[in-house]
UniProtKB/TrEMBL annotation:
Residues 24-133 form the Aldehyde oxidase/xanthine dehydrogenase a/b hammerhead domain. This is Xanthine dehydrogenase YagR molybdenum-binding subunit. Its EC number is 1.17.1.4. GO terms for molecular function: iron ion binding; xanthine dehydrogenase activity. It comes from the Bacteria. Keywords: Molybdenum, Oxidoreductase. The keyword Transmembrane does not apply. InterPro entries: Ald_Oxase/Xan_DH_a/b, Ald_Oxase/Xan_DH_a/b_sf, Ald_Oxase/xanthine_DH-like, AldOxase/xan_DH_MoCoBD1, AldOxase/xan_DH_MoCoBD2, AldOxase/xan_DH_Mopterin-bd_sf. The lineage of its organism: Bacteria, Bacillati, Actinomycetota, Actinomycetes, Micromonosporales.
Amino acid sequence: MTAVVGNYLLGDPVDRVEGPLKVTGTAPYPSDVALPGLVHAALVQSPIGAGTISRIDTGPAEAAPGVVAVLTYQNTPELAAPPPSPFGSPPRYPFTDNRILHYGQHVAIVVAGTPEQAATAARLVEVDYAETPPVLGIDNPRAPVLENPYGTDTERGDAAAGLAAAEVVLDATFAIAPETNNPLGLFTTVACWEADRLVVHETTQWPMLVRSTLAAVFGVPEGNVRVLVPHIGGGFGAGLRVPPHTVLTVLAARTLDRPVKLVLTRPQMFTSIGHRPETVQRVRLGATRDGRLVAIDHEGTSTIGIEETNLEPLSRGTALAYACPNVATRDRQVRLNIPNPGWMRAPGTVQGHFALESALDELAYELGIDPLELRLRNYAEVHPQSGLPWSSKALRDCYRVGAERFGWAGRNPGIRSTRDGNWLVGYGMAGVTFEWYQSPCRASISIRRDGTAQVRSAATDLGTGTYTIATQLAAELLGLDRGRVRVAIGDSDLPPAPQSGGSGLAVALSAAIHATAGNLLRAFLTLVAGDDRSPLRGREPDEVRATDGRLHLVHDPSVGETYLDILARHGRDELTADGEATPQVDGVPMAPSGSFAARFVEVRVDEELGLLRVRRIVTVVDAGRVLNRKTARSQIIGATVMGLGMAMLERTVFDPAGRVANATFGEYLIPVHADVPELDVVFLGAPDGLHPVGMKGLGEIGIVGVAPAIANAVFHATGRRIRSLPITIERLL
Ligand code: MOS
């Protein structure tokens, strides 16, 4: 009996199981944690972008009311280097020496009895700096440049020769402003040492990474570190590293031998947990007059901190998106005195698609070919890099269904052809190919005499539905009511799970639950294997299925017994099984897989006022099986709104001294309800054969393709090609 998954594409729209806890204010977030003897920390950050600390006087701060410690590079021990993470080394530890490498670098952590006392005392720490001119600007010739920093550049055929021979060549450069992840929940660390055991309540998308990093840095066994994060107030990728403030808070707790809590302020969120790097991308397309791509050359440049890493290939996705014989993709990183960038929803891919899908639109108009038709003529029937079949791909259906729902064929294709009063009306579209991956994941499941099942894994729920889909899937596989399934996640003591990032957690956790449920059902059969009183005695796994809390023969459901009867007869309070899903062989995915989407956008532009309004967006997604059509739709809607922000509003402004000039919600603009139009979301395709439950990655694809579809619609409306994001008023006037 293996765990059987039903024959559906779209799972039930179950409400989020943790929703009642959240709306009643009883879901504990890291910032809610209170412990006996807890003291509170505040950060002192560098007001300069580059230089050295020439003097620190902590005396006035130490004398302030309630202060118990002020820690700086001068009075703290050297810490061990953390191990590299799979996605780049951990951020530079700010107390390494007296050098300042960016604005907002932490130079002291002040601990006091209350948060207010700590914040007040932080302002009393006196720091003198010897300033040097910061290296700023993505085109700064003084900035060190890294070529192909992660070995992700690709080459197939001969792109240069292909461009030279092409009938038509398009050459365009695209720029995207830096943006900042702004989850509502302020990132928090609460650290508590008991002898050499550490408990950390941490805002993170990856408890196991926090555990291994802190264990290495503080020289204790990994098993001595427990990371707890039952709920997260959003992350968008910001929780995929162990940020410097986490290490400092844990250090303060160890130094003081007291639990210490640090909650970042909103402005500190702009300097402390990463941001989407500024990028410049050059795309060259070579094509025949009838719209066949013969060459693509894509070069991406992004910014990075002076002594930091950030795996964020911009151009790589271009090698996978279309059938084209000659493709070269390259990435470069420019080192600047800026807070280190990090991942922000669909990192790399979302920027790369803005460049590629905008360039394709330009090519389509140049050739006089419908933009959708141009994409179909270059459809990648197989994975372009390997030549292998995709695990599944319904992008053609996404295009067809999206075009029908949107009414694409009914538009007037002429530039500036459509008006509604003062508004110029435009229609644009984009295709999306999104490479996802599945990491190894473990789980354990118990069925208890009280009739409940307990599912455990060190996964996290960003607020997007991990608890809910784990509940649904376990209930389905175990043949139990959903109300009887309890899901425990957000705890590094549970079976190891990967990060909730890279659109990979739901697929990894679901595969682990599938494997574990199969093991648990086998464990029940093993228990009754020699049991004369069991109607299931001697039965093989594939003969048996679970329904309504009862195991029974597939071919004769009247033959069987309940979980509880088996447990009771064998004097067991519970039966537990562990399971693991490892989708890759030697780190290589077993088949090329991608999620796909088509987007269609209608905009209105008032040229006199420079106003841009998005009127509707149709998104059609092939992400394989969707376990919960409601949470999945919400995932796509939320990401689409982030895409609106990227396209029209979001921009982290670094001033000439390298300071973030708009580090508040008053000045860093994100979409509000009035900015968000009707969002039509459709899922189609089929359960994917690569994954045991049939799923593909879904978490990030919703942001990809929004910005180019909007920019393309702006072109159709106005005849103005905007190659820089965000598309603000001044770019439309
Ligand atoms: Mo996403 S940037 O992998 O949370």
